[in-house]
Fold this sequence. Notes:
With 452 residues, chain A is mainly α. Chain A has helices spanning 7-18, 22-31, 34-43, 46-54, 58-67, 70-78, 82-89, 95-104, 107-116, 120-130, 137-140, 154-165, 189-194, 201-204, 218-227, 248-266, 279-306, 308-313, 321-345, 353-382, 386-416, 427-451; strands at 147-149, 173-177, 183-188, 212-213, 232-236, 242-247.
Amino acid sequence: MQFEINTEFLEQVHDAIQRNDIRFLSELTHDLFPADIAEILNRLELDDAKKLYNFLEEEVASEVLVELDEDVREKILESLSSKEIAEKLIDNLQSDEAADVIAELPDEKQDEVLSHIEDEEQASDIVDLMNYDKNTAGGLMQKELVAVNANKTMLECVRELRKHADHIEDVYAVYVVDDDEKLLGVIPIKMVLTTSLRSRISDVYDKDIISVRTSMPAEEVAGIMEKYDLIYVPVVDGLGKLVGRITIDDVVDVIKEEAEKDIQMMSGITEDVEHSDKIWMLSRSRIPWLLVGLVGGIFGSQVIEEYEGQIRIHPEMAFFMPLIAAMGGNAGVQSSAIVVQGIANKTLMAEGILRKLGKEFTVGLLNGMICAVLILGYNLFFSDSMALSITVSVALLSVIVFATLFGTFVPLALNRYRIDPALATGPFITTTNDILGLFVYFLIGRLMYGFY
Amino acid sequence: MQFEINTEFLEQVHDAIQRNDIRFLSELTHDLFPADIAEILNRLELDDAKKLYNFLEEEVASEVLVELDEDVREKILESLSSKEIAEKLIDNLQSDEAADVIAELPDEKQDEVLSHIEDEEQASDIVDLMNYDKNTAGGLMQKELVAVNANKTMLECVRELRKHADHIEDVYAVYVVDDDEKLLGVIPIKMVLTTSLRSRISDVYDKDIISVRTSMPAEEVAGIMEKYDLIYVPVVDGLGKLVGRITIDDVVDVIKEEAEKDIQMMSGITEDVEHSDKIWMLSRSRIPWLLVGLVGGIFGSQVIEEYEGQIRIHPEMAFFMPLIAAMGGNAGVQSSAIVVQGIANKTLMAEGILRKLGKEFTVGLLNGMICAVLILGYNLFFSDSMALSITVSVALLSVIVFATLFGTFVPLALNRYRIDPALATGPFITTTNDILGLFVYFLIGRLMYGFY
C-alpha cells in the first residue's frame, strides 16, 4: 500500500503504455491513490504521461490533476480543450483547487474554461476566489462549507449537513451564522451526534471560535492554526461575514514553503527555484549574492593591499588569512541561525537586546578561547614566529567574538525594520565578517610585529 | 480575539499577580485560549507564572500545561505533588499528551504519578505509549479513537460514537475492525450522517485506507500525511491490529522541527538548541564545526605556505586569496542547498546523477564567467599586473565551477550512504572549497607569472 517508485517500475509503466496494455494500466490506476498516480506522471516522459492521464476516469483525473507538479500539469492541460477542462476536471474539484488550476492557465483560456462551467454557483465561487492574493487567507480558503442559522434547530442542521455532505470532501464542523451571515460560532460534528435534534442551535453552539480575515497573510494563518492546534478555521470578510474555510492540509504546504524559502535565503538564493528549473533561472537566482560576495572580496583585497609592505616582509602573515576569514563567517552564521529561528518561533521576544548580546558574547568568548588556544598550540609547535603565533590567536579570538555578536545583532535589526531576518544568515554575514576579520588580523599583526 | 503579548501587557499581569487582583486575573484567564495563557506564562517570571497557573481551573490548567515551553512546564510540575499532577492534570489530558508530560518527569515521580491515576485503562494506555520511541508513529499517536466491528450496523456505530464522543477531543472518523481488532477500513463521520442506520457496516465502509505502523519514523508519517493530504491516520501494530491514531496537528510540529534541524545543520550547529538554552549548551552545539573549520584553516595555511616564495615576490597574490576562498564557499552552499531541498522534497529523483552534475556545471560556468569577467574588468582598471588579473579571473571561474559541482555531488553522495545531506550545506562545503580554491589559485598563479 505504501508505495515506492523506482526506475524499474517506471520502465514497466513505459512499456505498458507503449504496447497499449490496457489491462496493466487500468489495474495500476485502480489500485493506486491519486497522489501516487500523480507521482508516476511527474516522472514519466511527457508523451507517456499524457497517454496515461487520458486513461484515467474523470473523478480520478481531477484529483490527480491537483497533485501534479505545476509544469507537468501545465503540459497536460495544454493538450485538453477548454470544454474538456471545465466539464471533466473542474466540475469534480473543490472551489479552491479549481481556482488554483484555472489561475495557472493562460488568460484567454481562463475565460473560456469559466464560460464552460455549467454550475453557475461554482463558476462564481471560482471567480470570487481568483480575486484573492494567493498568499492570503482568501487565497487559501475554499467556499465549500456547511453553515446554519442560529435560530434553527439541530434537526435542520442535520438536514443541511445531509444536503451538502455529498459535494464537500471533508465535513468537520457546521458553522453558525446570524441573519446577516455573520459568523457566530461552530458546531463540531460530534456535537451533532450527541445533541437532541430538538435543541435550538443558539442554545448549544460553541461561541469560542477562532476565525481569520480574508486579507490575513498565509503565514499568519499558518501560525494561528499551529498555535491553537486547529484542523480547520473559518474565514470571514471585513464585515464578519462567513465566506470560506481553510483546512490544515493547505496550511501544511505554506509551512513547508516558508521553511524552504528560509533555507534558500540563508544559502544566498534569491528566488524560489528547484533543481528542475531552467538553467538561466537557476543562474539568475544565484548571481545576486555571488556579486555581493565579489564586491565584498574586492573590499577585502583593498584591506590587504593596505598591508602589502607587511606581507612582503612577513609573507607568513598570508598563511592564516583564509582561516581568520572563514572562522568569522562560520561563527557568524551559527549565531544568526539561532536568532533567525528564535524570531520565527517567537521564542526570542522575552528578553531585551542587550541581554541577548551579552549571552552571545559569553558563548563567543568561550568558543573563541577554545579555538585560539588550540591554534596557539599548533603555531608554537610548527611556526617559528612568536609574533605570528600571538597575532593569529588574538585575531581569531577577536573575530569569533565579534562575528558572534554581529551575527546576533544583524537579524534582530533586520527584523525590527521588517526585513526578513533569514537574509542575514548567509552570504551577507560571511562577506562582512571576512572583511572585518582581515582588518582586525592585520591590525593586530602590525602591533605584534612592532612589539617583537 | 487574535491577541498579541507586549511588555506593557506583561507588566499589567505582573502587577495584578503582585496585588492579588483576583477579578483581573479570572477575567484574563476566562477570556483567553489555553495557548494564549501558556504564552503569557512562558514569558512571566517563574514566581508569577506559578501563581497565575494555580489560578486556573482544572480543565484549563491541563490544556495550558501541554502548550507550555518544556522548561516552564518542568518548573511548574516541580511545585506540584504527584497526586495533584495525576488527579488534576493528567486526568483531563488525551493519552498522548499525558504520556509526553509524564515522560518529562524525573523517574521516581513518573511512577508516583502513574500510581495516582484512578482510571486504570488510562494508566495502562499511558504506560503503553511511553514505551514507544517518541520519533516514531507509536510516539506520536493517541489511544483515544472510536472503532467498530465490521459485522455491526450503523446504528451500533452511532451508539459507539455517542459513548465516546465526550472524552475524545476530535472525532473525524470511525475505524472498522474485524474480530481480531485488525484494521479493515474507515467510516468518515459524514457517512454516519448520510447512511441508513440499518446498513451493515461491512457493506458501506471505505476500504481504501492508508495506515501507518507503530515503528514508522515520525518524519515518514509526516511525509505520508502530507502526500495524501490526510487529517488523521490510523496506527497499526506489527499484526495489523488498530492501536491508535495520529492527527495532523501533531505532525505539523514534526514538520517544523525537521525544517529547524535542517537549518541548524546547514549553519554548523550540531544540537537542537534555542537562544534560551544554557551558555555551555550553546557553546557545545557550535564548537564541533568551528573545530572542523579550524583544521580546514590549518590545511589552507599549509597550502599557502607552499607558495611562500611566490607571495614574497608577488605579495599582490595575497590580496585576492579571501575573495577566491569566499566565492567558492558561496557557490558551493548555493548548489548544495538546492540539492538538499530537492532530496527532502523528493523532486530530485527522476534524472541520473550525471545529468544533474551536467546541469549544475552549466549554471556554474555561466555564473563563474559573469563573475570572472567583472573581476577582470576591475583588475585591468585598478591593478598593474596582467598576470594577477588573469590569475584571479581564471581561478575564480575554476573555483565557482568546481564548487558548484562539489556542492551538488556531496549531498547526493551523503544521501546515498544514508547520512543527512543537510550536513553538506554548511561549514563542510565552505571549508573544503576554501582549501581547494586556494590550491587552484596558486597553481594558476604560478603558471601565469611564469608566462608573463
